[in-house]
Amino acid sequence: MEQITIQVKSKQKARALIDFLKSLDFIEDVSSNSASLQNSAGLKETDFFDLAGIWSGRDLTLDSIRSQAWPARI
Predict the structure, then answer these.
(1) How far apart are CA 12 and CA 59, in angstroms?
(2) Is residue 20 part of a domain?
(3) Within-domain flag for 74
(4) Cα–Cα nearest to 36, from 54, 11, 73
């Protein structure tokens, strides 16, 4: 058995495609993930402050980051 994933921009067109696929006799199962349609970017919503402190305890400066990123320029 093969599985295909399709991303559709329009909720209405996705519904029409699902209805069409269900009408075919060789299709065993058609399922949709409505949560992915609500969040079109596919990004998980998080609180900005959840990331606070991820760089704590590290000695980072702009110069040290730049020297690692572009060693030939400095």
Answers:
(1) 52
(2) yes
(3) no
(4) 11
In a domain, 6, yes or no: no
Total of domains in the chain: 1
Q: Which residues contact 30 (CB under 8 A, 6 or more apart)?
A: 18, 21, 22
For the chain, what's the residue count? 74
Residue with tokens 């399709």: 6
Place of tokens 């020297």: 67
Token pair for 18: 């699902």
- Residue 64, CA distances (Å) to 57, 61, 67, 70 in order: 15, 5, 5, 10
Quick check: is 38 in a domain? Answer: yes
Which tens digits make up the pLDDT trace of 32-59? Answer: 876 544 444 455 667 777 777 887 888 8
Domain of 41, in residue numbers: 11-69
pTM of the model: 0.42
